[in-house]
Design goal:
about 80 residues, mainly alpha
Length: about 80
């Protein structure tokens, strides 16, 4: 079995350089909006709570099930 596919290699490598684990860097680099820059991705305020929850799950934010939409946005931005 080969190496897992990374959607955004540049983002993955940048996250690894910042000290993220291989697993966490891969989760972030494989999110649907991975690599979108310059405001192309919708701001979190326009996401539904379910979308925010799924994104928080993808990047490994603990305690997300007890967070409201505002708290999820804050946690995602500060992760």
């Amino acid at each position: 079995m080969g190496k897992p596919r990374i959607k955004n290699e540049d983002q993955y490598e940048a996250l690894r350089d910042k000290g993220y684990s291989k697993e966490k860097a891969a989760r972030i680099a494989n999110t649907p909006n991975a690599g979108k820059k310059g405001g192309k991705a919708d701001p979190y305020e326009e996401w539904t709570k379910d979308e925010l929850y799924d994104q928080a799950k993808n990047v490994g934010i603990d305690g997300r099930s007890k967070m409201n939409k505002r708290e999820l946005i804050s946690a995602l931005r500060n992760n």
